[in-house]
Amino acid sequence: MESITTADAPAPTRGRPREFCPDAALSAALGIFWAKGYDGASMADLTAAMGITKPSLYAAFGNKEQLFHQALDRYEAEKLAYTREALKQPTARAVAEHFMRGAVAAQTSTCDPKGCMGVISATACGAEGDSIKAHIMQRRQSSNAALVTRFEQARQDGDLPQHLDPQGLAYYLYAILQGMAVLATSGATRDDLDGVVTIALSMWPTS
Amino acid sequence: MESITTADAPAPTRGRPREFCPDAALSAALGIFWAKGYDGASMADLTAAMGITKPSLYAAFGNKEQLFHQALDRYEAEKLAYTREALKQPTARAVAEHFMRGAVAAQTSTCDPKGCMGVISATACGAEGDSIKAHIMQRRQSSNAALVTRFEQARQDGDLPQHLDPQGLAYYLYAILQGMAVLATSGATRDDLDGVVTIALSMWPTS
DNA sequence: AAAATAAATTACCGATCGGTACACAAAGCC
DNA sequence: GGCTTTGTGTACCGATCGGTAATTTATTTT
């Protein structure tokens, strides 16, 4: 089984060289999947945005589903970088604020599709979507686990009330993040979401 | 232009009578759209669940898009009845609690698809989805406006802090509701969402 | 120069999509 | 009994879906 990922290929400079940049093509595919979801993105949409033909796409990325997973990996690596930064913040409140501010910025950026690709893809995948849902749920769970761990530490630090359930708080924060993503997808402005963040922070529990 | 809705037809008892119950068929269609979204629901899925053939469907409901709008109307009338009840609660806190408890019950019911049909449909509609998005956004805005009005009255009642922005609070509550819907769609249990509600209520502002 | 390798292009595959033409069946009106 | 009206079933429409076979083009290796 050949590996197909974009970041291998030591330098097999034999045969005709490809005429497109796989990195740029993958970014273009990410934009389509992000905007339209897995099912909503047709091969015609993808090839048009990537500037390549179908056989080139299949040779470089496997098939539509594998291309999607690679695009999702890139999305998480690039567009969700703020979540890893957020976990390093000194207080639970700062963690939550970094999460929410980062989410608002990512979801309402003027040079990217609105909303969260994970939310769009998890809610909008049909028959073969099991593999995609599994991917997103796994990603969500690992991210959630990290957040729970961070809140548990915060409680030990006296940074959160003892009676507060870290798991519940993590779910609560996640609900706000995903909810803002839904609102962003259906037309909410950046100011609207900033208002949500302000309110949520004003209610954030004090130690 | 003939009206096609299910609730007209005074009694045109001429011609062959139809052999299916439009109400039951519409409920079956609602179940499919709710579970799979607009694009994800194929005509084959719909006719199989409704127990009728395509020509019968087109004669009774117009086309796929019109069928969807009728299903969405029924969804709002039946499954979102708790929202109208919630607005009548005596305090802002009770309003929010009723909203959230009702949403959790509706989104994790064992005899209905998981999640919120509005969220699933708004995030998962492709090309012709503009009409659908418009329908959902309009519904959301009117519902949001009612909630803002209710919170403004609550603030006048001394039921909410004066400094709190009713519009922001409404968006905040909406974000939690839609976020829980996303979580429910991708596997969260009823207990998980109850935890979110508990936390959110524990933070709810006191006058 | 010839062979080998790999990408690009074109044209096509079967399956499924939403939607419909057409013939037939069941009822009321005359 | 027709005749009209309306719903049902079958079989089909063009378009699009994801995916591929076959050929040509470009480059490295011998």
Describe the structure.
The structure is a homodimer of 207-residue chains. Chain A is mainly alpha-helical and 207 residues long. Chain A is 68% helix and 0% strand. Chain A contains 10 helices and no strands. The first copy, chain A, has helices at residues 22-40, 43-50, 54-61, 64-78, 81-86, 92-107, 117-123, 129-156, 166-185, 190-203. The termini of chain A are far apart. Chains A and B meet through helix 1, helix 7, helix 8, helix 9 and helix 10 of A and helix 1, helix 7, helix 8, helix 9 and helix 10 of B. The structure holds a DNA duplex (30 and 30 nucleotides).
Gross morphology of chain A:
elongated
Largest sheet of chain A: none
In percent terms, what proportion of residues of chain A is strand? under 5%
The largest contact between protein chains, plus residue counts on each side, is: A-B, 48 and 48 residues
Counting helices, strands and paired strands, the structural category of chain A is: mainly alpha
Radius of gyration of chain A: 19 Å
Estimated helix fraction of chain A: 55-70%
What is the string of helix and strand elements of chain A?
Answer: HHHHHHHHHH
Number of distinct helices of chain A:
10
State the separation between the terminal residues of chain A, measured CA to CA: 54 Å
Q: Quaternary state, please?
A: homodimer
Number of strands of chain A: 0
The overall average pLDDT of chain A, rounded, is 91
Give the low-confidence spans of chain A. 1-9
